């Protein structure tokens, strides 16, 4: 099984997107990948929503991109006979609006100026991302989602799907996510944004024809990366191990392995990701509030009378979206009468645990999806 | 009771400081303040060691600096009849070596070049800081420390004092500190250092005659500041409260109060602190390892046979140096036969809790110090 990245573009004025900010965005292109086959009733689809820096390449390898041989970011989960079984389900994954991996974002060409948008790109919300995904599913002929699944910012999209299009949703699996960012999560995002915006190469977002803010972006990624790990995992993986020598260098080179690891992660990210997309997506995550109509005219009340089933998953060592926030979500969903299962998985690897191959997660998701099919 | 900042300078070649790196530093000036009177036996002294960005101004107000009317950083703790009672004890607080608040640091003039050291300043360790404080105490005629007390990086100094000069120490109170930085703590320090070093105004540390890396320094402080708070305290203090308006601005201005607070803290810090001092002091903290002779030829074994009493204090919501690390310290001290009391204080305000007026802390420290006197 190999896959191709495809693109859906909406440029008809009436269909194109009115954003939550009130601004209009056109054209909108969404990169997406599909796995398995849609049945004739259009109701065996599963939408997977990726996290902050992810993309549509959720599984398999590309058949038409020989230079990109890496399997998708959730390849252990998605495929024939896997937790999300592509022999049974038609799986769709879209790159989010505002990103830089094929969908329209701040690095795309602004038709009004013929130059990249930069900061002229309108602010987008999790709701706007969901609306653009809805257009792709309509185009593909999907009538009903067997499930909408996502971790982290992907989990926010899964939840937003449930309040915007409850009639389309049979089940949802929000993983390592939250109903709304805490002050701590906003704080980390704001520090990351500042790290980018103080880099003079950022140039108020207008850097696409010059060297970009790679150094600031690398620092932003280092901050993010620390929040995706955990104290325990970092002790296990790095502890106080030194990089090359048996003794300290007594200078500002990377002495400890953890320093060198973070520097590497930062500069690697700066090569592949657009700094402005970091700004837009982190802001969308900060704005997201599932039950607050400051953010959305929809709210949890829209779930009343829907019959979606929820599987909420958290991780013991996730301190970005800790288990207490998952429990708040479970309680909020239950108050609207939803059928909610909750599972806290014991894992020491922090927020990013859902990205690490784990048969427990595959079985949990596979079992839940089978249960939905049978009900 | 008012106070003056004083300066001790050592510039005699034989007394001056051989650093742990093997390099020599001369002259060394240490800014210090004293409170109360040293008795004729020179044994009623208490040394207070300040944290990362602190200074010698631990209590009272200056008698000779009319523009600086702020009371010292631990004024609630230090003074007549307070937890650390200056009617009884002769209290000394020194600005640490490598800092920028009066003691020799990277912003001081290098006698070899007549210019500020910048990165020519040698790396200093917690042990080097302690040795320079020892010279000040010798100069003042202090024979014995009734106690050596410090929080955070100040707690590291207090512990280092106990292994370097056990014969001088009657008791020690390490607060909200650790025997050694975890990978997580090193990671946060490294991200802060990178934030400074990627600012082009940093200019490899040579910025003293030009505008400095204020933007990078502000980001570094924002990172630090988040680690000094806690999820709980930030929820209580900020939650998702908006700054000015009732709705989102849909731009990259500070929408949430927590964003605006962090920006303010960052830029305020950049006005008062030297970026190179942040680099040197964070590195010293990362290198510190109480029981590892990679760091110091001294070790916990040097405590064997000493009769110091320890009061180890941690805070429930401190996730920079969590209670489990305080317990590791307690166990390590006990293994060498020390008399150790341990207290975990319930507080939701994170690592910085020890800087916030709290009668529980004053009574705890006051009671412990009285007990030492009577033994």
Précis, in short:
With 375 residues, chain A is α/β, with parallel strands linked by helices. Chain A has helices at residues 126-140, 153-164, 183-197, 214-228, 231-237, 257-272, 275-287, 323-335, 359-374; strands spanning 2-3, 6-10, 17-18, 24-25, 28-35, 45-49, 61-62, 78-79, 84-85, 90-94, 109-110, 115-116, 145-151, 171-175, 309-315, 339-345.
Verbal overview:
- 2 copies of one chain form a homodimer.
- Chain A has 375 residues and is of the alpha/beta class.
- The first copy, chain A, has 2 domains: 2-180 and 288-374, 3-Layer(aba) Sandwich (Rossmann fold); 186-281, Orthogonal Bundle (Rna Polymerase Sigma Factor, Chain: A).
- In chain A, 33% of the residues lie in helices and 17% in strands.
- Chain A contains 9 helices and 16 strands.
- The longest helix of chain A has 16 residues, at 257-272.
- Chain A starts with a strand and ends with a helix.
Overall residue-averaged pLDDT value of chain A: 93
Q: Mind describing the biggest β-sheet of chain A?
A: 8 strands, mixed
CATH topology of the largest domain in chain A: Rossmann fold
Q: How are helices and strands ordered from N to C of chain A? A: EEEEEEEEEEEEHEHEHHHHHEHEH
Q: Architecture of the largest domain in chain A, according to CATH?
A: 3-Layer(aba) Sandwich
- Overall spatial form of chain A: globular
CATH superfamily of the largest domain in chain A: Alpha/Beta hydrolase fold, catalytic domain
């Amino acid at each position: 099984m190999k896959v191709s990245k495809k693109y859906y573009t909406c440029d008809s004025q009436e269909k194109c997107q009115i954003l939550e900010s009130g601004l209009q965005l056109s054209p909108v292109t969404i990169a997406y990948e599909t796995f398995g086959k849609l049945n004739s009733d259009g109701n065996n689809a599963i939408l997977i929503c990726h996290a902050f820096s992810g993309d549509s390449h959720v599984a398999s390898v590309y058949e038409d991109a020989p230079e990109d041989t890496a399997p998708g970011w959730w390849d252990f989960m998605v495929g024939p006979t896997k937790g999300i079984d592509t022999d049974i389900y038609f799986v769709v994954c879209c790159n989010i609006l505002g990103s830089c991996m094929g969908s329209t974002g701040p690095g795309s060409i602004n038709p009004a100026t013929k130059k990249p948008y930069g900061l002229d790109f309108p602010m987008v919300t999790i709701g706007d991302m969901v609306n653009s995904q809805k257009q792709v599913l309509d185009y593909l002929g999907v009538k009903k989602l067997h499930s909408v699944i996502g971790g982290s910012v992907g989990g926010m999209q899964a939840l937003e799907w449930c309040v915007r299009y409850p009639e389309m949703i049979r089940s949802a699996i929000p993983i390592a996510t939250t109903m709304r960012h805490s002050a701590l999560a906003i704080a980390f995002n704001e520090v990351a944004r500042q790290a980018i915006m103080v880099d003079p190469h950022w140039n108020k977002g207008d850097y696409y024809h010059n060297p970009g803010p790679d150094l600031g972006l690398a620092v932003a990624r280092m901050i993010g990366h620390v929040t995706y790990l955990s104290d325990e995992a970092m002790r296990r993986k790095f502890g106080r191990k030194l990089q090359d020598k048996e003794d300290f260098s007594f200078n500002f080179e990377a002495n400890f392995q953890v320093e060198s690891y973070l520097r590497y992660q930062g500069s690697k990210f700066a090569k592949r990701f657009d700094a402005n997309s970091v700004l837009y997506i982190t802001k969308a995550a900060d704005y997201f509030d599932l039950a607050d109509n400051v953010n959305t005219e929809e709210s949890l009340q829209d779930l009343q009378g829907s019959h979606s089933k929820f599987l909420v998953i958290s991780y013991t060592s996730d301190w970005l979206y800790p288990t207490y926030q998952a429990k708040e979500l479970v309680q909020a969903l239950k108050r609207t009468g939803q059928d909610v299962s909750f599972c806290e998985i014991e894992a020491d690897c922090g927020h990013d645990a859902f990205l690490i191959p784990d048969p427990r997660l595959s079985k949990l998701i596979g079992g839940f999806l089978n249960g939905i099919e049978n009900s």
